[in-house]
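Reviewer comment 2.1 asked that we show a complete input and output for one of the modelled complexes. We chose the flavin-adenine dinucleotide case, as it is the one discussed in the main text.
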Amino acid sequence: MSIDYAAFRRELEAFARQACPPEIRAVVAAGQKITKREYQAWQQILNDRGWGAPSWPVEVGGTGWDIRQRLIFEEVMAENDCPPLYHHGLGHIGPVIIRFGTPEQKARFLPRILDGSDWWCQGYSEPGSGSDLASLQTSARRDGEHWVVNGQKIWTSHAHEASMIYMLVRTSKEAKKQEGISLLLVPMDTPGITVRPIRTIDGWHHLNEVFFDEVRVRADNLIGEEGKGWTCAKFLLERERLPPANVARLALMHRQVSALLQKAAQAAGARRDFGVLQHKLLLCEAELQGARVMMAQATDDLIHQRPLGVQPSAIKMTCADVAQRLTTIALDAVGPEAAHRFLAEEGGEELPAATWIQNYMFTRARTIAGGTSEVQRNVIANALLGA
Ligand SMILES: Cc1cc2nc3c(=O)[nH]c(=O)nc-3n(C[C@H](O)[C@H](O)[C@H](O)COP(=O)(O)OP(=O)(O)OC[C@H]3O[C@@H](n4cnc5c(N)ncnc54)[C@H](O)[C@@H]3O)c2cc1C
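Response of the prediction step:
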């Protein structure tokens, strides 16, 4: 049966406008941080409608939608100021459990991701092991029916709010560093785990250091084969950069460009002298259009089950770069008032200008998080130049 994509889009649009609470849409529209409570509320609404996991197969509670439907979903939700799906559970560890988990693990972990009751974080990076992830040192040794974990993770987003962490641990020391790594699922309330906050330059607390001191984890919380966690890790990282994850980002940035252009035109009034600003914004828009073309190509590859080329790396890099330039342009336009209000309003009611400066500061991290731009350039150079 062929799918009527236009009717599908209309159904989603009607749902988004009617079902997403206005107070949550206002937060998204203003470009402000979405809280755990807001993410969870939206996840429950989607799950009640049967759309809790757009990318999962039907047999584990997903929609079974094809790739085009998933992209339309992301696009429509972003256009209507609905929060993006919380990626650590639905987009990262969920698909890994579906692919590598046992039936018992699927039954234990997946429903709690779907209804939003578990909030996951990612324990990959360590001090000294970021881009070179396979050099990680956090260890797990077997003791009867448990793994005993010792070591440290860093830059762990949302660890202080998470109920579960999926983490890479070294279960044996092999000659090749990619061997002997395993993927463990660990409840964050297990004795021996200490979470220490890292406050970022924008004043936000979402990053953490996480310490593991003789942490005992059920043996059957290991996903896939012991010592073969690198395969799961790579599967997860590849998914992190798939097109659906970037649709919402692109849509949001496109709207930010349009809003800034409109504001600049209003401020200039009859004088219409906002040429420099307009030029900078249109250059951003041109790059976003380029990213959209790459996204369309990648989507076509996915639909026809062709291997993805360098588009995911190129899209990730472009999004990060444009996000930084866009917030820089906005800050230039707002002027010193942004800093003044940011300082004055810290902890108090936020004003739009303060949101721009926070976003300006936060977007500095975008060329680092999820794989640095330098590493993406290496990927592209290796693929295109055969370096
Ligand atoms: C906002 C944010 C959220 C994050 N959330 C998480 C999370 O939830 N969980 C998690 O596990 N991690 C998380 N990270 C960590 C992130 O994955 C790492 O910061 C990233 O992989 C880079 O690693 P690093 O910080 O150790 O830097 P390094 O790898 O030490 O890199 C330092 C510098 O050297 C450059 N470099 C490194 N290798 C090469 C190379 N081969 N060629 C050229 N240049 C190179 C890098 O580009 C960078 O400029 C987060 C980071 C940020 C900023």
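The radius of gyration is 22 Å. We note this here for comparison with the apo prediction described in Section 3.2.
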